[in-house]
Design a protein that fits this description.
about 325 residues; alpha/beta; Rossmann fold; eight-stranded mixed β-sheet
């Protein structure tokens, strides 16, 4: 682990973990995110970000000079379903576009508590169907998300499969939150070790997002669904995270169902360390690993998909 990562861990303990999320209002959570957003560096020259309507859902379409027009990555941001936006991830999504050599569609899905479950899932489904309607070949689409967005990746795939919609060629989940019933042992075991999250934080987000829905509903908590038939999936999580076991148990369920899944547990990495990519080398290496996985699983190119790729963006 790098010295920079150790410094980030210390900073997170001071700036983030000591905040009592249970005593903060939704407006205060969002104000904190807005403050952080102003500190996010802009993408480099050559990156294009276009605000679009993706089937009735707000989204950003991000491309770089490395982007192949036939390859697509649908990105679902984290934030406990109550905060977050594509703008907050603009320093990450251009790097994902470059690493995956894809057009990244960063979905600005509706947030709770104003829009509780299933609003976020419905928006993810609409954005994915918009990609298909625009000519994208599903074999050349990857769906990706972090934290709450990482769990939403699995919920999205379960919903698409159940409805008979063609599944994407690959999926990536970063520190995914897959169990809103909060039964993972790491919630307790890693409570002190996690430099960013407290075990007492998730229940507030659950209450705001579910608005009374059953937390064991598979479209809410994909850990309780049957993952049979889901596409090749790549999962990254930090060893000290309170949500570590949400990733580990999801990977175990996928293996038991015969799915192809790769799980990487990175020593001492904080929750979604990828967002610290301007600061720590482990974030850059993790994104490189993501790029290699996605390119290897979405590399199929047909003449028809090339011909259909032009209208998107």
């Amino acid at each position: 682990m790098s010295l920079r990562s150790e410094a980030v861990r210390l900073g997170l303990r001071w700036l983030v973990k000591r905040r009592n999320y249970r005593e903060l209002s939704i407006a205060q959570h969002r104000q904190f995110a807005s403050t952080a957003e102003r500190l996010i560096p802009d993408p480099p020259a050559g990156t294009k970000t276009l605000s679009i309507d993706a089937g009735g859902v707000k989204a950003d379409l991000i491309t770089t000079p490395a982007t192949a027009p036939h390859r697509h990555t649908l990105f679902l941001h984290g934030g406990g379903f109550i905060i977050g936006s594509p703008s907050l991830y603009r320093h990450v999504t251009w790097r994902i576009a470059e690493a995956t050599q894809a057009r990244v569609l960063a979905v600005d899905y509706r947030l709770a508590p104003e829009h509780p479950f299933p609003a976020a899932l419905e928006d993810a489904v609409s954005a994915y169907q918009w990609l298909l309607a625009s000519g994208a070949d599903p074999r050349q689409i990857a769906v990706m998300g972090d934290s709450a967005g990482g769990g939403l990746v699995f919920s999205l795939m379960l919903r698409l499969r159940d409805e008979g919609t063609p599944l994407p060629g690959a999926a990536v989940a970063l520190s995914p939150w897959t169990d809103l019933a909060l039964t993972g042992p790491s919630l307790r075991l890693n409570s002190a070790a996690d430099p960013m999250l407290n075990a007492e934080d998730p229940p507030q987000f659950v209450e705001d997002y579910l608005a009374g829905a059953d937390p064991r509903t598979p479209y809410v908590s994909p850990l309780y669904g049957d993952p049979a038939g889901l596409p090749p999936t790549f999962i990254q999580v930090g060893s000290d995270e309170v949500l570590r076991d949400d990733a580990v148990r999801m990977a175990d369920r996928m293996r038991a169902a015969g799915c192809q899944v790769e799980l990487e547990i990175w020593p001492r990495m904080p929750h979604v360390w990828h967002v610290f990519v301007p600061l720590i080398p482990e974030a850059r290496r993790a994104i490189e690993r993501i790029g290699s996985f996605v390119r290897s699983r979405t590399g199929y190119v047909s003449a028809a998909s090339l011909a259909r790729s032009a209208p998107i963006g």
